[in-house]
Amino acid sequence: MRVALMLTCINDAMFPETGKAVVRLLRRLGVDVEFPPGQSCCGQPMTNTGYLDEAVPAVRAFASAFEGYDAVVVPSGSCAGSVRHQHGLVARRAGDPALQDAVRRLAPRTHELTEFLLDVLEVEDVGASFPHSVTYHPTCHSLRLLGVGDRPARLLRHVRGLRLLELPAAEECCGFGGTFAVKNAETSVAMGTDKVRHAVGTGAEVLVASDNSCLMHLGGLLSRERAGMRVMHLAEILASTEDQPASVLTAPTLLERTSAARGARS
């Protein structure tokens, strides 16, 4: 089985450790994952704001980069949802039968990470170790658009040493919503503040999610409030082992990650 990693824009620019974690995890499970260098944005920023014509080049680029793979793994419910549910709309609007065929082939082969682990590999215990308390935030697209359900929790419950604490009002949106956070900043911050309050109230050391876009929003709020809670992508926890641990004590805060990303580009 030929498997490709779709890293996503935000991970490429700001959270490269998530992509590295996915590769370590999949290789540990015997998957020879590849990274197609021609990949780019999935087009979600355009499609979510109604610019469907502008999204056509991004959908073409995705189809070209990932054609020929048996599975595409995405560490983001948001971007996986875009491929599965928005690319078809964009391709139909473009009126290009070849692009429509490519999208139809790729959509069912594109999996959010937890879907791939449980539904394709049929693995629930990935051999991870993370001796810390965590609470899990189910992001909107993974929860509602993809319907990943309890897959992340099932994986976390098998992580050695991990204590999973229930997040109150877990299904409420964190308020990020891409451009929503820019266009409706006050509402976005209010929603994020509610989510952070619930997360801190669990007493967990780490707030976990499967979308770094949401963690960026929540991590910023936690950093500004000096709440003492770290944010980590689910993939980084699942990739952690006793031999190669991902310690919450050394995991950078959102502000530290942002500063490092800016420094790398300067």
UniProtKB/TrEMBL annotation:
GO terms for cellular component: cytosol. It comes from the Bacteria. One of its GO terms (molecular function) is oxidoreductase activity. Residues 3-83, 134-218 form the Cysteine-rich domain. This is L-lactate dehydrogenase complex protein LldE. It comes from Lapillicoccus jejuensis. The lineage of its organism: Bacteria, Bacillati, Actinomycetota, Actinomycetes, Micrococcales.
